């Protein structure tokens, strides 16, 4: 099980232009804040 938000840099053999992107970065920050406030989110 994964307990954090993880970004990806490629799909199959196709590199993504920006990784992590702005949405992943924002979601990771929001989830980290939730984890800090809630023992078992």
Automatic annotation (TrEMBL):
This is Uncharacterized protein. It comes from marine metagenome. The lineage of its organism: unclassified sequences, metagenomes, ecological metagenomes.
């Amino acid at each position: 099980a994964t307990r954090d938000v993880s970004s990806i840099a490629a799909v199959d053999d196709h590199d993504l232009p920006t990784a992590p992107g702005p949405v992943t970065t924002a979601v990771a920050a929001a989830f980290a804040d939730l984890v800090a406030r809630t023992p078992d989110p």
